[in-house]
Amino acid sequence: MGEIVVERRTVEWVANPRDTESALTWQLERVGSTAWQDWSLKFQRMAFGYAQDSGWHDPADALRWLDHHALLHEGAAPRGALVWYQAADRVRVACSLGSGQLVGPLPIGQVGVAQLTDLSTDYVWSDPHFPFGH
Q1: Nearest residue to 65 via CA among 101, 11, 14
Q2: Residue 32 — left, alpha, or beta (φ > 0 → left; ψ -120 to 50 → alpha)?
Q3: Would you kindly state where each structural domain of the chain is located, as residue ranges?
Q4: Is pLDDT larger for residue 1 or for residue 47?
Q5: CA 31 – CA 37 distance, rounded (Å)
Q6: C-alpha to C-alpha distances, 101 to 5, 10, 50, 97, 104, nearest whole angstrom
Q7: Alpha-carbon distance 32 to 25, whole Å?
Q8: Whether the Cβ atoms of residue 16 and residue 48 lie closer than 8 Å to each other
Q9: Within 10 A of 82 (CB to CB), how many other CB atoms are there?
Q10: Structure confidence by residue, pLDDT tens digits, 9-55
Q11: How far from chain centre, in Å, is Cα 2?
Q12: Which of 29, 48, 101, 102 is the most exposed place for a label (fewest CB within 10 A)?
């Protein structure tokens, strides 16, 4: 039998419209809001300054794409990284504040700050990369 070869193309990095600290400030200003329930990917896209769709259907779709392009990392997520985790039977994404803390729409239904270990033990992280955002 022949081998299956998976081609991984290099993804061009483009600077986000909003820098990391501004994106974190934007998110922290929305703590307590329930307007973003179940929209964790949209929330992160908007935080980093993209007004239009990310090109991904949902966080699980984004996670598969990032995995296929070898853009996921394990271990402690640095400040500003997107943290992809499994909670309440779905993939969610939040932004790392560093020291194991995250900000974003939480499974409880509102934007908040939480310890990652309180949410999930199944997670990976990526740079805040929205290759289809505009």
Answers
A1: 11
A2: left
A3: 36-126
A4: 47
A5: 12
A6: 38, 30, 23, 5, 10
A7: 14
A8: yes
A9: 29
A10: 555 667 899 999 999 999 999 999 999 998 999 999 999 999 887 68
A11: 36
A12: 29
Q: Which two tokens stand for residue 109?
A: 């239904």
- In angstroms, the CA 73 to CA 130 distance is 16
pLDDT in tens, 83-103: 999 987 899 999 999 999 999
How far is the C-alpha of 68 from the C-alpha of 9, rounded, in Å? Answer: 9
φ/ψ of residue 91, rounded to 5: -80, 135
Which residue is associated with the tokens 């400030």? 25
Tell me the three state secondary structure of residue 102. strand
Q: Which amino acid is at 65?
A: W
Alpha carbon 9 to its chain centroid, in Å, reads 21
Phi, psi of 118 (to 5 degrees): -80, -20
The full length of the chain comes to 134
Structure tokens given for 41: 């990917």
List helix spans (H) across the chain.
20-28, 40-47, 59-68, 116-119
